[in-house]
Amino acid sequence: MKKIIFMVAAVALVGCVESPSIEQGEPKQPIRILSSIDGPATRVSGYMGNVWDENDRIGVYMYTDAETITGTGAALNVLRTHAGGGEFDGEDLFWPAKGAPANFVAYYPYHNDIHSAHDNVYPIDLTDQTANIDLMYAPVVRQAADDVNLQFSHQLSRLIFLVEETTGADPTKTTAIIDGLPATGKFDLRETSPAAVADNDATTTIPAKYIGLTGGKARVEAVVMPGAADYDLLFTFDDGTTVSAPMTGKTYLKGKQYLYEVSADAPRGLVNVVGGNITGWGDGHTVPEISEEGIETDLDDSPVATMGGTFPVEFTLNYPIYGQTVGIKADEWIHVTSVEATPVPGSESEVVKLSGRSQ
After folding, report:
1. Domain end (from 154, 179, 205)
2. Residue (of 77, 65, 86) closest to 19 by Cα position
3. Percentages helix, strand, coil for the chain, rounded to the nearest 5?
4. By CB atoms within 10 Å of each CB, which of 15, 192, 266, 349 scores lowest?
5. Considering the chain, what is the average pLDDT of its residues?
6. Which of 356, 355, 349, 354 is nearest to 316 (CA)?
């Protein structure tokens, strides 16, 4: 029996990123690039939050010390596509001649004409919260050999609202709008330390994304521009009633998430918003109890299971683990090739199925 530890942590993901734009050494030495996401940070697009989905795409820049990120000899916006198992398919990148060092930066999600049409300035558009808008950036790594490890981090902020309508409205039909925050901006990849900057006069209404139920409350989320914030929250319930609450004097930091508890009495037009607890994007969630025989919680709050090492491993969570992922360690590390999560009808549970192989 293997002891398999399910750990709440970001999973380091391995990708082969290779392309021919820089002067090629003799003999050619292909470059292997590894990619990971900071700490317990999470992505928006994936169901489990902080794992790469199949067909996720990143853009990679490679340039020598004699060049800039957009120099004539640089590899510009090289597309890499995640094919599963942490590997990114693409053309070959080779080390420069005679062991000269190279510099690497990358961003996510990939934008096909960021170089040709946008002069390497990433256009941010948050108007559609159902789209893949979780901008991440991996700062410059400089080296001349070995694997290149690109560390991605979130460049925007995430707002989470747990909404309860106290007079009996159906929580699954709750909608929310953020009115008064900028919805567009820019991220200049040419800068040494790029940051998301809102466009002037870009404030608009941003429909938040309904995620599901947490503890019987509607969970709605929105990714927003970091910075000072004054805006209005509007919640609409199943009978068409809308209530609003002003949010003033807020400051949101990149890579952070903010959790608010909302209590509303729709018929009387009353709403109360409390909280704003700040955590790292993906932190601050209680590790869920796993309702599977033989699984318990150890002292570091990581669910632990002792079971055979045969895949797929399947277990039930008693509520969604938003902002978390599952890493697996046995007698040896096990490589997870896929994660499937299926809601259990009529409950807040979900069945999680892990597939993989021993390393």
Report:
1. 154
2. 77
3. 5, 55, 45
4. 192
5. 74
6. 349
Is pLDDT larger for residue 314 or for residue 275? 275
Pair 31, 94: CB distance under 8 Å: yes
* Number of domains into which the chain is organized: 3
CA geometry: angle at 257 spanning 177 and 127, to 5°? Answer: 35
Same domain for 275 and 346, yes or no, is no
Read off the pLDDT of each residue in 219-234 and give the average, rounded to a whole number: 95
- Of 154, 188, 221, the residue at which a domain comes to its end is 154
Residue 246 lies in a domain: yes
3-class DSSP state for residue 187? strand
Comparing CA positions, the residue from 223, 258, 226, 281 lying closest to residue 39 is 281
Between the alpha carbon of residue 61 and those of residues 30, 34, 121, 144, 148, the distances in Å are 15, 14, 13, 15, 13
User: Looking at per-residue confidence, does 272 or 287 come out higher?
Assistant: 272
286 part of a folded domain: no
Is residue 14 domain-shared with residue 88, that is, in the same domain?
A: yes
Largest CA distance in the chain: 76
Amino acid identity for residue 226 in this structure: P
State both tokens at 270: 């009353």
Res. 2: pLDDT tops 70 = no
What residues are paired with 327 via a beta bridge?
7
Statement: the pTM of the whole predicted model exceeds 0.90: no
| CA separation for the pair 176, 181 (Å, rounded) | 14
Contact 109, 57 (CB under 8 A): yes
Residue 194's alpha-carbon distances to 60, 61, 240, 255, 260, in angstroms, are: 15, 14, 42, 14, 29
